[in-house]
């Protein structure tokens, strides 16, 4: 363990979230220096058991979003477990939860109850659906949100929707939640007041997707179809020996590209100079590029396109991403020695802060690993902690 150095050093967060959306947000805040106490059930976050692992309860997926945290295993249905959380809330700056608000209220930890214990508390609720709408009580998972937000329709079509093969809803919303908590902390510095923060998945992803995908429906009444034609047409192109993405973007880019490959007649034929005509003809333009691409190897294309200052890249395999030239040079993927799980590979915090650089100060915790440590800090003595463990109000790793 090292001392946290990020801009949120000194901020304490009670992380009552599980799976991906909330834990990812809490990890970002922990990466930025906050002291994050992950409060889990005695069985642990279900994400512990998802994916591959060396030891049960410590999957790679779990450890990817739960570093820089301490684990306290707590039964919030047990009166003594509730009393522990009630004692911790006044010591915290932020409480994160993705338990549905009605269930948190039944447990006695709704916003009003927590604010009564700590008026400066930022109470951040990671919800599926905004709590002022008719779907407020529904459960939400990534697939539900991709479907309901229109994202799956945009990726596929209205007739045949498709999911993005990544938990993008959870991860985008996790980043939104980390930003919202940071903004609320900044507001508290000005006003001295805590507040309720809600980040609903459906609204967040629907708004995110709408930026380019509303298309003609961005106007009222609509002036054309929904969607963004270029998104449907862009595809990897096959070179002589592999795959690339080539992205001449401006009129000058396209002119330079077609001149360099000896197809200058396509400049006028496909009207690449005019941005409006280029957008209308993008299917034909991309088809021409795909027809030309197999004439050169990937390395030959990279040399030419770099000289022309045309955006491009070869494709990286996920299994080899740590060896990608740029990411290797900036050291994105760090080798971590975990005390129980051995060598791990994880992406370091990507965000840079010149005066308060983030660091990896704690490995992902085993279930209840820090229960005793956190309770001692909260004022419990050793005998009291033993009694809580014996009563199964607290789990000790």
Tell me about this structure:
The protein contains 18 helices and twelve strands. The chain has 397 residues and is α/β, with parallel strands linked by helices. The strands form three sheets. It has a seven-stranded mixed β-sheet with strand order 6-5-4-1-2-3-12, sandwiched between helices. A three-stranded antiparallel β-sheet has the order 7-8-9, with helices on one face. A two-stranded antiparallel ribbon has the order 10-11. Strand 2, helix 2 (60-64) and strand 3 form a beta-alpha-beta unit.
Number of helices: 18
Question: How many β-strand stretches?
Answer: 12
Order of helices and strands: EHEHEHEHHEHHHEHHEEHHHHHEHEEHHE
Determine the N-to-C terminus distance. Answer: 18 Å
What oligomeric state do the depicted chains represent? single chain
Largest sheet: 7 strands, mixed
Name some characteristics of this structure.
397 residues, alpha/beta, seven-stranded mixed beta sheet, three-stranded antiparallel beta sheet, 40% helix
Quick description:
InterPro entries: CoA-transferase_III_domain, CoA-Trfase_fam_III, CoA-Trfase_III_dom3_sf, CoA-Trfase_III_dom_1_sf. The protein has helices spanning about 20-30, 60-65, 80-90, 100-105, 110-115, 140-150, 150-155, 170-190, 200-215, 230-235, 250-260, 265-270, 275-280, 280-290, 300-310, 325-330, 370-375, 380-390; strands spanning about 10-15, 35-40, 70-75, 95, 120-125, 195-200, 235-240, 245, 310-315, 335-340, 340-345, 395. It has 18 helices and 12 strands.
